[in-house]
Fold this sequence. Notes:
This protein is an all-beta fold and 192 residues long.
Amino acid sequence: ISKVVGVLDVESGAWVGRLLALPRELCRFTMSSDGRLLATGSATEVRLWQVGSAQPLFGPVALAASPEDLHFSDDAQWLACLSKDKIWVMNTRTGAREREFRAEAAKIALVDNSGRLIIETPESSSPPKVIRFRTGQDCGSPYGQTEFDLQRHAALSELLFSFRNIGPEWPKIVRVLDPATGRARTEPFIHD
């Protein structure tokens, strides 16, 4: 566990800006896909940084529990945070947050610009859910919704697989799912 985070340029291997010395131990971080923004999470707060800068873009967002997931939208306009059983989304240009809502989620798979996100549920047998992040409204499964191209969108491709772990002494079971229905396309197979 560290209080320092830095970003390396993958081509040159050089640090981009100075290393960031954080006030609390880092427990979660993510970088936007365009490489411009970095979000860091400690047990008590989330901070948003422009890569290469030593100053956060906005004040810290206080948390009641450690963040379990941080996820940027593809264009980096939105940052979503899952903490315990709550989710909130921040506009990365203004620092304004949408209202926080309750959701049983294990992971945030997607945040889009139409005000929706996709969450993976803690139960491996339950399908992922589409939620309107401004209201917390459950919009059902992403399977069969044409605006979510599960086969072509890299962040969503993992939703085409169903994993089931029935214990440490048993191997994991995997199924390939149909993107239109979410039903299994293949017989289950063992994956270690």
